[in-house]
């Protein structure tokens, strides 16, 4: 299996995150190939409404979005399997007879290469150039035809704080040329029970996904986490409007992480592995405006589960 992560960077992130209170590990470390496969399984769970809701919006609005943005290139951050993206690609290929370009960007390098190979098979006229990179750092995009539609789907924006979201969207804004658009998929605030169920599925796939982070650290750094001795927890913080996903030690755990340090977890001690902010239109507008973008269209479903925000400079 290819080494997905830069070991020195991972060690630095862990030294920093595990010395904070609460202890935390950045969510990008969920996504080795196994983590990407588990996330894909999550998207098919009955409880995990965001993917279905966003897919419905893309089916309904892709034509309108592509007619407005007229992109010759689609750049997608955190593309994953790019399953829903196919609705946008279908419309692009219909409207760009000379062929379209797709630049999926993802930290999960092996999984990204597989998704790209599958897309090339399915869409022989599509130019697919995968970019294995961490979107929270500076990375280079290959030269591509203008205009571009930059997409950040799946509500992955929710996995950072709103201030970090501004930094991330600002970096997208810096790449955007006049005439480019930015399409953001956002999970909306709603009934707490529905949200909590989506992160505590009955088959325990989300728990497996959460624990996989410890296996990723074991295999990349040679650490000795006993992943099965940590319980999954996902609770909605109503004040912050976010899910907080934790791994909670069951019994005392001693862990050695080479190049990072030795850690002891007492029974009940926990690591914050992910936050998943839920937005409303005001927060989306605020993040986009602070990033130098203007909200042009806001597409949502009748139940107000999810939104697609289309913006430009
Ligand atoms: N867009 C897909 C996948 C969402 S899962 C969907 O909507 O279903 C989040 C994706 O972002 C994963 O594929 C993960 O590997 C990627 N990812 C998470 N953090 C990242 C980072 N810092 N840099 C690049 N990709 C990242
Ligand atoms: C990728 N991201 C938007 C997912 C989310 O809902 O925050 C990751 C996830 N975590 C648990 N289930 C899904």
Please, could you describe this protein's structure?
The chain is α/β, with parallel strands linked by helices and 313 residues long. It has nine helices and 14 strands. The chain has helices spanning 7-18, 33-43, 49-69, 85-95, 109-122, 162-175, 192-198, 205-221, 281-290; strands at 23-24, 73-77, 101-106, 127-128, 131-132, 148-152, 181-187, 230-237, 242-249, 253-257, 261-265, 270-277, 294-300, 306-312. The strands form three sheets. Strands 2, 3, 4, 5, 6, 7, 13 and 14 form an eight-stranded mixed beta sheet that branches. The protein has a four-stranded mixed beta sheet with strand order 1-12-9-8. Strand 2, helix 4 and strand 3 form a beta-alpha-beta unit. The site of S-adenosyl-L-homocysteine has 19 residues, from helix 2.
Kindly list the characteristics that best describe this protein.
9 helices, binds N,N-dimethyl-L-histidine, single chain, 8-stranded mixed beta sheet, 313 residues, 4-stranded mixed beta sheet, binds S-adenosyl-L-homocysteine, alpha/beta, 14 strands
Question: Topology, pairings included?
Answer:
Layout: H1 7-18, E1 23-24, H2 33-43, H3 49-69, E2 73-77, H4 85-95, E3 101-106, H5 109-122, E4 127-128, E5 131-132, E6 148-152, H6 162-175, E7 181-187, H7 192-198, H8 205-221, E8 230-237, E9 242-249, E10 253-257, E11 261-265, E12 270-277, H9 281-290, E13 294-300, E14 306-312
Parallel strand pairs: 1-12, 2-3, 2-6, 3-4, 3-5, 6-7
Antiparallel strand pairs: 7-14, 8-9, 9-12, 10-11, 13-14
Helix pairs in contact: 2-8, 3-4, 6-9
The structure holds S-adenosyl-L-homocysteine and N,N-dimethyl-L-histidine.
